[in-house]
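Is 2-(butylsulfanyl)adenosine placement plausible here? Inputs below.
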Amino acid sequence: MNQAKIIGQIKKLRTEIEAHNHRYYVLDNPIISDSEFDKLFRQLQNLEAKYPELISPNSPTQRVGAVPLSAFQTIKHKMPMLSLSNAFNSGELRDFQQQIFRKLSDENAKIRYACEPKLDGLAVSLLYKNGQFVSGATRGDGNVGEDITQNLRTIRSIPLHLRETEIPAPKMLEIRGEVFIKKGDFQKLNESQLSVGDSPFANPRNAAAGSLRQLDPKITASRPLSIFCYEVGISDGVEFRSHQAFLEALPKWGFAVSPLIEFVDSIGDVMKFYEKWTENRDSLDYEIDGIVIKVDDYFLRQKLGVRSRSPRWAIAGKFPAIQTTTKILNISVQIGRTGALTPVAELEPVEIGGVIVSRATLHNQDEIDRKDIRVGDTVFVQRAGDVIPEVVKVVLEKRQNNSQKFKLPQNCPICNHAAIREGDDAVLRCINAECPAQIKRRIEHFASKNAMDIDGLGPKIVEQLVENGLISSVADLFNLKKIDIVNLDRQGELSAKNLIESIEKSKNTTFGRFLFALGIRNIGEHTARILSEKYPNVESLKSSKLEELIDIFEIGDIVAQSIIDFFADQTNVQIVDACLNAGIIWKPEEKAEIPQIFEGKIFVFTGALQQFTRDQAKQMVRERGGKATGSVSKKTDFVVIGENAGNKAEKAKKLGVKILTEEEFLAIINFVRKGIE
Ligand code: IVH
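Reply from A.M.:
I modeled the complex. C-alpha cells:
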C-alpha cells in the first residue's frame, strides 16, 4: 500500500471510531455492537503499530492513557474562568434580578434566562485550535490551572476534533464544562476501590476530582468520567448572539450538554425550575448541588459585565447541602426489635439539608472496620430524603493521635446476655428473647402507624409499661386496665382512657397489618400483604410448608424460612394466640382489584425465565385478563423471552410479534400496580 492510501485508511478508521464513540458516550445511542467496535479499534491499532510515525495524540487509540507525568504543568486560560456568586433562597434569587435592573437602569427590562442544573463535579476548560483538541486544564485560581490534557483525552465524551457542522471550525475555541461521575458509576468505583484495599471516595465529586488529578492517565482512563459542557471562553472565528445559540452549537460539534436546561422569560419561572429540582434532584443519576441562572442575551451580558471573580449576569441557586463534616462525640449502641446491636454515632450537631443532625447510624461492626470510624474523628455525614443520616468517611488528616479503634461489646449492654453473629450475617445480635430492650422495640413496632396503629402508645409510655412490669409482650397490651396507666408517673385519667380506647380500637384490623405487626424477621409490609392475600388466617399460614411458601411469587427462601422459624417457637405461638383470644379480628383480606390490562391478549413465554417460574408467569397473565399459550402464531400479542430463547423468539421476530424481556414484562405489571396502590 502506498503512504497516501494508508493515511487515508487511518483517517477513515479514526473518523468512524470517533463517530461510534460519540454515539455511545454522548448520544447514548450506539449502532454497532461492542465486538464490531473492538474490531475497528484493533484495525486502527494494528495500522498505527505498523506505521508509528502516523500516530497522532488525537487518535482514538490514544484515549487509553499516555505515559505518567512526574508533575502537572500549568496552563494560562485564554479567558479567565470565573466563579459564581450564590443565592440560597428565593429572596436572594429575586435580588439577583433587582441588581440586573439597577445595572441596566431599567426596572421593566425583559430578560430571558437560561436555567441549568449546577453539576457537582470539577470545572475544566478545553482548548480547540482549528477544530483540534490541543489542551485542557482545571480551573485553578481562575487565571492559571493545571494542565490535565492527557487525562481529559481519556474521557470518551470529549471530542478530540470538533465534528463538522455548517459553522467552520473556529481558529481558537475554549469550551468550559463540568467533569462528574454518575451515582451508579460511583458506587461501582467505590466497590472496586474497596476490593483492592484502597480507601473509598467520600462522594462522586471527590472521586471525579481525584480521578482527573492523577499523574498516570491510565488510572484516569479506568475511571467512569462524564462531562456536560456549559460555557465558552475565548472564541476566535465564531460569534454567538445568545447562550441558547451557543448551547445549540455544542452538540453539533460533538459536545455533551445537559438535557435539563430550560429557557424562561421571568424570574417566577426561574423559581419554579429551582423548586422542581430541589424536590427532584434525587431522581437524577448524577449529583447536582443547585441550579445556575444565566442571562441568555450575550449583548446584555456584556452590558452587565463582571465583578472581580464572578459575572453579574449569572448566579448559582444553591440547594441545602446534603453532606457536611462534623465530629463524633461518642458511639452508642442501640438494640433493635430483632436484638440487633446497632452502633450509632453521637455527633456534634450540624445542619444538613436544612435539618439539624446529631446522630448517624454506623450500621454494624464490619462497616465501622471498613471505614475505620473512631470516637473523636471528624467525618463526612450525609442525609438524602428521609433516610437516616450516615457517616460516609473519616477525614484522616484530622484524627487525634490517641484515638482507639471501636469495637462493639460482646454482651448486650441492656441485658448482658451474650451477643453473637450468626453465620455470615454482618449483624451482631442479643439472642435473649426476654431482653427488655427487644421487648420494648417489638411493642413499639406492634403499635406503629402501619402496623396495629395504636394511637398514643409511643416509646415513652412503652418504656414505663415494661419497666413497671405491666407488660412483657404485645399480647399483654390487651389486658391493660385504665388504673394501671393512671398509676404511672406523668399519666392522667384522660390519657389513660384514650390509650385503652386506642388499644381496643386497634383490634379491628386487617390480617396483613397484624402479620406485619408481629415483627417476624424479614417480613415487611409488602410481604405481609402478599401472605395475607394467600392465607386467610394464622392457622393456615402456620401449617404451610416451606416449599409451598417458596412457590409464592415474590417470596424467597429466606422469607419462607423466617416464617417457619417464627411459628416453630412456642413463645411466639402463645403470644399470637393470646392476641387472637383477646379479640383481634379482621375481615377476609380484600384482594386488590387487579386491573385487566391484558384483557384478550395472548402471551407466549419462552427461554429460561429468571425472575419467575412459567406457572407464575401464566398466572400473572390470567389474573389480568390475558391468555398464555405455548406456540407463537399471528394471533400472539406478546412473546416474553428468558435466557437462551430460541425458535419461538425467532418466529416472533419474523411475524412482527412484540417481544418483551422479563424485566419489561414486570415493569408493565409493577407500573400498573403502583398506580393503584
Ligand atoms: S457557569 C461564569 N454553569 O459551578 C460562569 N457553572 O460556582 C461560570 N458549575 O466553577 C460557570 N454547573 O464548576 C456554570 N451549568 C453550569 C454549572 C457550573 C456546575 C460549577 C462550575 C463553576 C462553579 C461555580
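Short version: The radius of gyration is 32 Å.
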